[in-house]
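G., before I forget:
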Amino acid sequence: MDKSIALQLKNINKTFGEVVANKNVNIELYRGEILSLLGENGSGKTTLMNMISGIYFPDSGEILVDGKPVVIRSPKDAFALKIGMIHQHFKLVDVFTAADNIILGEKINLPSFKEQKKQIKEEEKDKNKQNLKLFALPFKRFSSRLKFNYLNRNRGKKIEEIAKKYGFEVDLKKKIYDMSVSEKQTVEIIKVLYRGADILILDEPTAVLTPQEIDKLFAVLRRMRDDGKSIIIITHKLNEVMAISDRVAVLRKGEHIATVKTSETNASELTNMMVGHKTELNIERSEPENPVDRLVVKELTVTNRDGIKVVNNVSFTARSGEILGIAGIAGSGQRELLEAIAGLQKTSGGDIIYYDPNKEGEEVDLMQKTPVEIRDLGVRLSFVPEDRLGMGLVGNMDLIDNMMLRSYQKGHSLFVDRKNPKELAEHIVKDLEVVTPGVKTPVRKLSGGNVQKVLVGREIAAAPTVLMAAYPVRGLDINSSYTIYHLLNQQKEKGVAVIYVGEDLDVLIELCDRILVLCAGKISGIVDGRGAKKEEIGLLMTANESGEESEGGPEKIAAAPEKTKAEKIKEMFDVATKKFIVKAAVKKKKKEVKK
Amino acid sequence: MLVFIKSAIRFATIFLFGSTGETITEKSGHLNLGTPGIMCLGALGGCIGASLYMESLGINAEIINQTEQVAAAAANINGFAAILLCILFAMIFAGAGGLIYGFLTITLRCNQNVTGLAITTFGAGITNFFINYVDRSGFNYLAAKFTAPISGSDDWFSTIFLSHGALVYTAIVLALVVAFVFKKTRVGLNLTAIGENPATADAAGINVTGYKYTSCVLGGAIAGLGGLFYIMDYLYGSWEYAMEDLGWLAVALVIFSVWKPNWGILGSILFGAFYIMPSYVDVSFAAKELIKMVPYVATILILIFTSILNRRESQPPAALGLSYFREER
């Protein structure tokens, strides 16, 4: 391996508002190596890479390419420095062929006018023809400057050479919309190589691939490494890290923890680095008071448009007066699971049974019911969606109108009732300390934390019996987060069954009574929040689903003594890593499909 | 029958200019519903250009009644120069309309539909108001230059293919050139990429704003030629208030031709044929109005058909109607 440094990051800092995305990150990348960037969600991996590829600009710090300090302000600058990034969401034009996409926006460097003149004079001996060509030259140059030139017929040649060199299999004449995800990714990689990139950054390239496709991708990456290219691969799958990378850099909460050689480490050490030691958050947590089963989900399966099971055979029980946490890597099926319960997602199998406390625990089947029907049955599901301004609130409407979204269908008057929503809005602003100029301010003008308070406030005001909150503290500062935790706890004490989907394991452990861990749409374990260890949950989040079936149902796992279970899973995981059985987690957001 | 085909082709030119211009604009992701108004502006511009030219020959409203003097002056009309001047003026006026639209939708990122409709109202209104103040005396002499056919003989070939004025051929050649540029050149590739996915085009280093402005202005200018043709060739220099309706048909033709100007040539002739058919067939008034409706119905059918077919190539540009803002991710 050539040991010269290709890329060096020195003391990189980046903050978004009050949120620190990267803090004093120091990473170096050598020529001809594959570096894995490992970290939980929100640990700043993608932000860091976006700074190298010119999408963000670091607040402070230095980026050195080949030992020289550089300034990268746009993707163009990055290309000029031979840095290419393959984003999670592909930047391809659907109706173009692969070849068209690869050459799109390519700069053609023409030799100078004098040189071309000289060339013609040398090449053409016939005096008349020479004069004719000299006459046509300015026009030709003008038209190619305008890019009016006919597309080069053998443009495929150079692309094919690259494809052959690294062993890509791609049909250049195929349209992008006809391609599978893996083919699209191949096109993206070729595009970056075609532009002459020496440093490649891949943002979670394996998330959307099948195991066979991952094998192929890794083979290609190894070939590129042997060719002297430097590759950074962002991932949070430990087995892949062990399989592909030469070195691993671990990020945690924006900070660079360590860079280690893959050969000198193992999965459990990396997990510890990734999740870190437990930090005390001092979130109050009361004991659940006589919990009763409120919501029972049995073998629920949700299949998405691509025919992939995003929620696979999930069974659990949410009890009253208890907070059930849901942990998992982003896109493990949390969103779909909650949406299925709220009636927003079509399910392909299973049961959701709700025990109505107002009717002495009468059983109600929530399957195959629309959100409105679920509400009319007296079932109160308050859903705080991930995408607050997209699904929860209407950004351009003021607080009162947003309150009315829940109530305008009630009442028998010809006109809508604005009085009660106004009182409710004022009540929420006062109680939850929402910072707003008034209740008539459009919601989109409020800050993230205040928007969230308004949304949670409205959902709580509906006096729910089951409250579901997906990432309610995402993008919020500490104080707002604590307000939200407090609200959830209040609800719990009132006997509401709270389901909380979170990212931060520390919070989950301190807040929740039980934590359900999802991995690739399946439950990989349910642990008790009071005795849980971060490492244990971290392992469950990244665990392979193989072997989980033998446990015999998730409820049993929860009942089993904790230490042995954690060890068991660790063992299994290590074995799995050694065998390198790569199982792809399904990660496909609706947005991407739309685009 | 021959005369009918000839008239259909002639009438089609109005749509063809309009739809070619509109296609260019739409390819960049901008739905310019201002096309009818921009075509009106083109008519106004052409009219002003023609008036200036006639003035330079000494023909104006004061001497228009002295027939012999006018005829003598009109003999000096240089057809080529006159047509070129009119084209230039029409393109400048219509291009200005396109520029206003472009500034509002590209730089200020206004809603494209609303802006387009506003431009239509604006263009049609301003034209109908000012065109009456333009000195249109002697335009019938000038119009003769516009309509001058290549060959006057009346065998079927000449009647259908050689009996038209210069602008008819300009429209067809222009449509073919634009189709070629879309399909075969780098500039067409870039433009299509912008209409499909501006973020991708931007990331690939293409000047998105520049392309969008160029396509809006150029698209407007070409659409404006439709207005010029309408007033100088089709109406022989007079003016009727029907321009706006024809402009809407041009917009419909873009959909009908599935964003391909070469198909637009055939489509425009078809539209033209249906539009003028009522004058050539002997049916009741109601039936005539029904025949006039056919192009609109055909457009709806084409929309239904392409949706069912679901071929990605025959869909509108994916980013049509959406403003692009780089920092918005």
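Residues 113-145 of chain A form one domain. Chain A touches chain B through 23 residues (CB under 8 Å).

More on Monday.
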